[in-house]
Amino acid sequence: MKRMAVLAMLACAAAQAQTGGFAAECWRQAEPVFRSALAHPFLQGLADGSLERRKFVFYMEQDLLYLREFSRLLLELAARAPQQHAQTLSRHALEAIAGEAALHGEILGLKGLSGAPFEMAPTNLAYVNHLRASVWRGSFLEGMAAVLPCYWYYLEAGKALAKKNPPVPEYQKWIRQYSGPDYEKSVKEALAIFDAAAAQAGPAERAHARTIFERSARYEWMFWDMAWRMERWPPQ
């Protein structure tokens, strides 16, 4: 019963976040994946405070590595963006390091954010390579389709978990990062950029962007599962 109640609450939150336009269309296609991810035991453990700290630390290590690559790819997209969107994406890239990655460094006890002694787990590397391929080889819309699920999904996860208020201070800090108004503003900006780009694209490009969006959504599920299993490179 508890699992079903959490799932219903999170699914409702995801539905409320939808916007009109192409972004909402992509969300609807990927919604079963997002629902499954929001119900993953890693996030349920964050919500009630039962998640083992070692799994949370592993997640934070991997996410720090991911955020560095994500920030670089946002700068790539900014360089290709229409002039009115370039500054916004550049700001988002800086915020990913100055805000999000700084929180990771604080929780992990790092003195600096460069040269962290972590190795990307297989799923993390696969996700990053998917983002790179989409940004480097695809159109601007396709690149945005690859990065947008990370933006949007974290807002929905943050809002859903904020309702639970876990008793672990580190988990509370993480939740506040992704449920706050500043982060929500960034997500809304990214959604507006995505919809504006989609309005200029043809049917084939939009179809490919939907596929990329859904694949990134599946990688989001895989990222939580990677952290839950504390995935390592085989053989071990």
Task: Write a structural description.
With 236 residues, the chain is mostly helical. It is 81% helix and 0% strand. It is built from ten helices and no strands. Helix 4 packs antiparallel against helix 7 and helix 4 runs antiparallel to helix 10. The chain is globular, with a radius of gyration of 17 Å.
Comma- or semicolon-separated keywords:
236 residues; mainly alpha
Terminal CA distance reads 37 Å
Total count of helical runs of at least 4 residues: 10
- Major sheet size, sense and barrel closure: none
Shape: globular
Mean of pLDDT: 89
Give the structural class. mainly alpha
Strand content: under 5%
What are the segments in which pLDDT stays under 50 over at least 5 consecutive residues?
Answer: 1-18
Write the H/E string, N to C. HHHHHHHHHH
Number of β-strand runs: 0
Whole-angstrom Rg = 17 Å
Share of helical residues: over 70%
Please summarize what this structure is.
The chain has helices spanning 2-16, 22-38, 41-48, 53-80, 83-108, 122-137, 140-162, 169-179, 181-199, 203-229.
Write the layout of secondary structure elements.
Blueprint: H1 2-16, H2 22-38, H3 41-48, H4 53-80, H5 83-108, H6 122-137, H7 140-162, H8 169-179, H9 181-199, H10 203-229
Helix pairs in contact: 1-2, 1-7, 2-10, 4-5, 4-6, 4-7, 4-10, 5-8, 5-9, 6-7, 6-10, 7-8, 7-9, 7-10
